[in-house]
Amino acid sequence: AGCRENIITLCSLTKLFAVPGLRLGFLAASEELCNAITGQLAPWSVNALAQAAGKAMIGDTDYIERTQEIVQQNREILCRDLAAIPALQIVPGAADFLLIRLESKITAAELADQLLQQARIAIRVCANYEGLDEQYFRVAVRSEEENNLLVAALKDILLPGQETGSFVECGSRIKKTPSMMFLGTGSDVGKSVLVAGLCRVLLQDGVRVAPFKAQNMSLNSYVTRDGGEMGRAQVVQAQACRLDPDVRMNPVLLKPSSDVGSQVIVHGKPIGNMRVLDYVRYKEQVWQEVCQTYDALAADYDCIILEGAGSPGEVNLKSHDIVNMRMAQYSHSSALLVGDIDRGGVYASFIGHVEVMAPWERKLLAGFLVNRFRGDASLLVDAHSFVEQRTGKPVFGVIPWLNNLGLPQEDSVSFKAGLYDSAEPAGEHVEIVLIDLPHISNFTDLEPLLEEKDVWLRTVRRVDELGTPDGVILPGSKNVVADLEWLAQTGLDKAICGLAEQGCQITGICGGFQILGKTVADPHGIEGEPGTLLHGLGLLDLTTELAADKTLTRREGLHLPSGQPVHGYEIHHGQTDRRKNDGTGNDTGSEPLLTFADGASCGSADRTGRVWGSYLHGIFDSDPFRRWFINTLREAKGLPPFSGQGAQYDLEPALDRLAAVVRQEMDMDAVYRLLGI
């Protein structure tokens, strides 16, 4: 515009921004031409409100760029799909509509009538355009879903006898698998648990169902049988479906390593650490992989239950969303918005979310689900009527507060809020302290201890909270380098060493195991600056170096001191050397603590056996080993071994209890109607 004196460019904001009521646009030309045209205009050609809206729209360059990208992408797909119909010849072009010549016995007008009657789709017949005849028509490039409906309708008319269905092949996706998505008004509102509950209900009803979360940000991860890493929540959801965990259920996992960066794991394998802006730029690339992964998973099951992340109302994240409404749109999922009423403000949050949703997002939203209610649900009827009047969306159910459900918690919000601070038992018991490292990971390793009646587990963040426990556990860490510095700053490092001298049992798991050693080196800058070397607590005679490659493996074996079976998984960059030399060439290294079925070994203990650690996540899941561990603490305290039946760590009863509540409190008839199964 304005590059030549004789060029005038006209732009309709009405079409670009979908605001036909404003009847607004602009003209761009040379200053001389603009002045001449202005002199011919009426004094009030545009009202003040329209002018203000126009200025705002023109300034939204991000929206314009994203619109161009989406239209171009959808145009290419639509051209490809229409070109597969022999009777249609597409005229080359670059506009946001397609001019098409119909090579058929019927005319464009007759085709338009059939489309309108059979599919309620209108096309523009171009018989009255200069130079065109009765065989030409024009179609707009619209959303992917609408384009698919157009292609299917054209195939039904122009390719009679061929099965086209209501869903057109797009990429590797060849069918629409029934699906539903649980969104949340925020983090830790119960989405993960409710997905697990609905999955178990569907399984009980004979549906082959699988869970899916496009992107998960969590420090609680798990290693699959084939060595892939995925979010712990999707592992629990897979168990609800009685499926072996599959990285396709969680194709992107983000493990925060600092306030501004995370390790990015795609299809179960780490691809590197990224700062926030780097990952935002990478998202469009990984989105294609997410879609392909979903298609592959959906093709294997009758139904998919998806989980969103955070909130779809976070307007600062919408432009690069790959896990909430964009994923719901791609998967053709109806969505339920889950809110935690225990926090307060749930109904205002429901209405607020609808207000910030785009029209296409509101179309996907089927309704709401109230979670964690304490009381009589009949008291909420008026509130539900109010919400439905304001939004046009119903409430699908009220899930009560579930005490001691017994399922692993994925979100660190619950952990930081004190979820793992159990009440002190009234009878004989041992006290175990969990050090709440700033970058704590896989804190679910400790959940089985919460089930034991003679264990008092509490979390500690300061020296004055430490007390004189019977045991201290240093958990996994996503940033051992930073957490070692934190331990020194808080004085917890010296306090823990002091407890060890007094005979307290000190245990380290994964990152905590590394912290117990003499040094931790980071030559590649995995967790800090390249070349970093920090001193550990020095309670175990071992050294660790953070390697570029990451160990991801499942393990089964024996805990040698007790002879008890253990199982779990390893997730670590650290390579720990427990071997030492006395200067004469003789190896005086300690014996391994664990041996595995494949001949590998892991872990180390000091000479007393009271300070020990290993890389094995899930070591306390073993009922026999866990009871042995607790009994050693009891004996050191002067208590007899526990004589009763210890806890049995089994998620199956908890999943069945959850399913019973979901089945009773959700409108399952409405859910099945949404799923279409």
UniProtKB/TrEMBL annotation:
Any GO BP annotation: cobalamin biosynthetic process
Pathway assigned in UniProt: Cofactor biosynthesis; adenosylcobalamin biosynthesis
PANTHER family assigned: COBYRIC ACID SYNTHASE, DETHIOBIOTIN SYNTHETASE
Region span, Disordered: 556-591
Residue span, CobQ/CobB/MinD/ParA nucleotide binding domain: 181-405
UniProt KW GTP-binding keyword: no
Name of the molecule in the record: Aminotransferase
